[in-house]
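Session log. Operator J.P. requested a structure for one protein chain; no other inputs attached. Running the standard single-chain path with token output.
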Amino acid sequence: MPLSLVLFLAVLAALLLSMVLYAVRGARRDKDAEGKNAQFVGGLADFVLHWFLWVVDPAARLSIRLGLTPDFYNFAGLALGAVAGLGVAFGQLELGGWALALSGVADILDGRIARAQAKSSPYGAFIDAVLDRFIELFFFLGLAFFLRQTPAAAVVATLALGGSMLVSYARAVGEGLHVDCTGGLMQRGERLALLSLASLGDRGLCAWAGWPAGSLLLAVAGLIGVTSAFTAVQRTVWIARQLRARAGH
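Structure written below.
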């Protein structure tokens, strides 16, 4: 059994065990997430969201004691995103999956540390949002390069990247007009989770099924592209209605 698969199964088992422990201890909801009105899969999987934040909270507290700043995690997440893109581009899908997952954890930690220390600022919000877009750009460019011999790959990667950017852009413009909109089916957390899992499981599943390497990741990217575009439309319609109502139209 490949070492990468052993590591993946060990981490998965540890996470499932921690999920059971979280449920047994009462599945307490995360106050920070509730304050942001954060959701996972449109609110259908909020248990997973609050469990995962419970898992990473000790890392946030340790980071504060060590003096690690939100900017440390912002740029660590960017570096990990670049590693993820390069890993996928050169066929190291497991490396890409782990790096992307860790970049997502870094993104969570930077926000939690900033809010815990009352250091949230326009600078922090700006740098966090922009670096997140770079990370997704790195990954989908890597995917397009890795599958450059596959005719559909460029279209799928472009759709996934474009849909992801539109979801974030709709929210940013809405917030600029004082309309908050954080809902929708395919937000950044969902995208990172799906891409990380697909990268980690692609080689094993494709070998078992007799598919070309990258087939699972390409299918997941296509799903993300379609659902992200739908989420962007959802947000656009919702924000437009709020603005029209405010204007009395």
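Operator note: The chain has one domain: 32-242.
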